[in-house]
Amino acid sequence: MTTEPGDDDLLRGLRAGDEAAFTAFYRRWQGRLFRFALRMCGKAAAAEDVTHEVFMALIDGGNRFDPAKGPLAPYLYGMARNQVRRRLAHDGPGAFATDPPEAWAPPHEGPLERLARAEDAEAVRRAVLALPEHYREAVVLCDLEQLSYEDAAAALDCAVGTVRSRLHRARALLAERLCARRNAAAGGAR
After folding, report:
1. What is the pLDDT of residue 103?
2. Any idea what DSSP says for residue 67?
3. Is residue 2 part of a domain?
4. How many angstroms separate the CA atoms of 178 and 123, rounded?
5. pLDDT value, residue 48
6. Which of these, 129, 147, 136, lies nearest to 171 by C-alpha position?
7. Contacts (Cβ under 8 Å, ≥6 apart) of 178
8. E-only strand ranges, 6-165
9. If DSSP codes are grouped into helix, strand and coil, which group holds residue 101?
């Protein structure tokens, strides 16, 4: 019975120049980091660049991670967060204009149901992207990426109470915006 190597083992191999370790580590983390970056910036090309930069930084300076200081996930998400911020500071807010959403729906749904689902998903996506960055980071890490409050706090370099507070405020803002959208749609349908 073979066991899959852990993140620490793969990171050590990556640091030593082991191509197989890099490939396994990349496959394990690329999707998660890309989703995080996409949810933070709204543009696939920018998310790809951010993900690429994180892995390049790991290759160039991957020895900065210290497992004694905490888990790997907050470290990687923190790196991705910093890359998103650098890109936004360099390119400006217009650089993150959102890509059109891809409609995903179960096969049993008809065209009207798919359209309604796509419109709802787009409304949520736009509402999340419209949040101030510090609220958006908390929502993306905790609600969408499912990190614990502790891991999100480590990734954001803040206290757990700050993450909780940001999440509370972000959820309230999202609820306000989505309710206003629903009310406007209901008013327009009359």
Report:
1. 33
2. G
3. no
4. 7
5. 93
6. 136
7. 123, 124, 127
8. none
9. coil
**Domain span including residue 62:** 7-100
Nearest in space to 115 (alpha carbons), one of 128, 101, 133, 94: 101
User: What's the whole-model pTM score?
Assistant: 0.74
Q: Which of 101, 139, 97, 100 is nearest to 117 (CA)?
A: 101
- The angle that helices 72-91 and 44-61 make with each other, rounded to 10 degrees, is 120
| Tally of domains in the chain | 2
* 73 in Cβ contact with 151 (< 8 Å): yes
Residue 56's identity, in one-letter code, is M
Amino acid at 110: G
How many other C-beta atoms can be found within 10 angstroms of the C-beta atom of residue 165? Answer: 14
**Among the listed residues 117, 119, 163, the one whose alpha carbon sits nearest the alpha carbon of residue 137:** 163
On whether the CB atoms of residues 103 and 180 are closer than 8 A, the answer is no
The residue from 82, 100, 118 where one domain ends is 100
10-residue block means of pLDDT along the chain (190 residues)? Answer: 80 85 92 91 88 88 74 91 87 56 48 67 85 93 92 94 96 89 66
Buried b (16+ CB within 10 A) or exposed e, 5-19: bebeebbebbbeeee
Burial grade of 102 (CB within 10 A; 0-12, 13-18, 19 or more): exposed
CB 141 within 8 A of CB 175: no
What pLDDT shows up at residue 117?
64
